[in-house]
Every structure is written in C-alpha cells, then in structure tokens.
User: Fold this.
Amino acid sequence: MAHERCEQCGNPTAPWDTIHCGSGDGSYQLLCTLCFNARIAESTGFTDFENVRLDPIRMIDCGGESHRFHFQLRLLGDRIALDAFELRGELRAGYRFQLIGEADADVLVLLGHLVEKMRRALSVRHIDFLERQIIDSTVRGRIEWDESQDGHLPLVVVDGKEVSWNDLGRMLMSMEGWQFRLDIADPSEEL
Ligand SMILES: [Zn+2]
Assistant:
C-alpha cells in the first residue's frame, strides 16, 4: 500500500501512522501522528506533552510465536492514548493493546505498563487452533468487522488470530448445556 504524505510536514507516512484530523470548517486533513499531536498540544496548551515516536518491539507468546508490535502515541485533549498493535501488510491486525494516561504522564512509564499488559496477554492461550476448541472455560478477544458479513456478524480476534462468528459458535457447541457470561470492555481495560 502506498504511503500518503502528511499534509503538515509532507513526510510519506504509513497508513497506520496517519490520522484524519477535522478542522472547524468541516474539512479533514491527513496528518502524521507527530503533526496531529503537535496540533492538539498547540490548541489545548499541553505543551509539556512528550511527542515521541516509539520504536517497534518484538515479543514471544507462550506458544513460541514471535510478534512485532508497533506503537502509536496520541494526545487526546487532557489525556494520552498509547496503542500497541501488529501489522498485516500496512494495516493493523492481530493483537492490539491500549493504555490511557494523563497528558503530562511519563511516556516511558506508560510504555512499561503497556508492555506488562502485553506480556500478561501473550502468556495466555484461549483457543487450540489445531483442535479448533476452547482450551479452558474463558475466551478473551476483540470484536472486529468481518468483511464477508457486511456488518451482520462480528469477526473476533482471539490470541491475536481471527476467528469467524461461525467458527466460535462451532467451538461453543462442544459445551452445549453449559452457561456463559458475555462481558464487553473498553479497548483500554484489562479483561
Ligand atoms: Zn507530519
């Protein structure tokens, strides 16, 4: 996928590192994350905010599989959001994590907490993808858009892997008659 140019600094920027920034007149500008943050910092007065780009890191999950995580730090008014995510091509796919902090928070401290959260998640497996069954009695994941379902059925991402709603249903049928509880949580909450 071609890189687009940030309309502020003119640098070619990967799609995952761009933000559509609305302006007062209803128009949108494509900005790189750093230019987006600089603009928010200027308009909100949070000039202490550390506008940094964090290098990707590699982590190994409990099955021995390697995952490369990219980071995006965004200033959102008086708070900051730190996202970690994997890429497929240039698009976000697989594991995703988020932490929210105060705008003047130490970014490296926040990063440390996020990496701990990622480690905890990568140390647990919920689905045996070879046997196509739920390993224990808990499944944690993320609800996503399924291109093939036109918004009628979700795609869930469990253990960093996509599982169709049908496949999840099939796995649940080995527990027919059991009870379940469905909890929905904000992306930054720990499940
Ligand atoms: Zn820029």
Notes: Residues 6, 8-9, 11, 31-32, 34-35 surround zinc ion (CB under 6 Å). The chain has two domains: 4-122, 127-175.
